[in-house]
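Q: Sequence in, structure out?
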Amino acid sequence: MRRLRLILLLCLLTGGLQLSGKTPTLTAYPADSTTNTGIAVIVCPGGSYCWHDMLHEGSEVAEWLQSNGINAFVLKYRVASISAYCLGYRVIGLGNKYPNMLTDVEDALRYVYQHADSFRIDTTRIGVMGFSAGGHLSVMSATHNRTQYKPAFVCPIYPVVTMIDERYVHHRSRRGALGVWGHLNRTMRDSLSLEKHITRDCPPVFLVNCLDDPVVKYRNSELLDSALNANQVPHRYIQYQTGGHGFGASEEKGTAECRQWKNEFLQWISNLNQ
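A: Exactly. Output:
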């Protein structure tokens, strides 16, 4: 499979010093010219905003999309890192946290839009797909986007959604995103709770999760589904009985039931905007 590593320079993106995490990167998996659908998907792997699952939720997803004529771009966005999550230097405010990851996905969208011609991409069909914490980021790319480069669709897969509802919150992702002090701030928790920031101009959403998810409580996706319904946002919500968490595009992880999501997505995206 062809792929191209594109380094997004940290100094150009933020102008700031970061003591944890790494420079964000965008790895392109261009669709073959004979099968190119013109669709592009920026892929955001999960990892509690502390690390990345670059295999099952990164390269395997991109290769699957690429094999189906979809241009894929795997984003390694800035996260806290395991050491930053555990060590006390985050107490004094250093280390990656919100809005670093939002800036990275905004810059990825900008790159894909500005280079659409060279990849033969239709700029009305550029979306963001994310898994777990990356699913949270995929929705933020629409709800919190501060640029003119908006996703045409978003695909959160078993996503983290709420940062404020203590019944369902994924605490590690919240702390990874907001930092040691930020996750204690109610205003900050509210600001990143996706269910509170869905509006009628949200792009179409493809949402998947499993009832037996042992990591991110399935109610997260139900909160998002309810908010999408309340705002009349076109979306497809699939809730599987089995599959757990973290299966990504793997043909081995999860269950045969949950692995159907890939075919469902291909059907959904082929019909979108037709």
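DSSP finds ten helices and eight strands in the chain.
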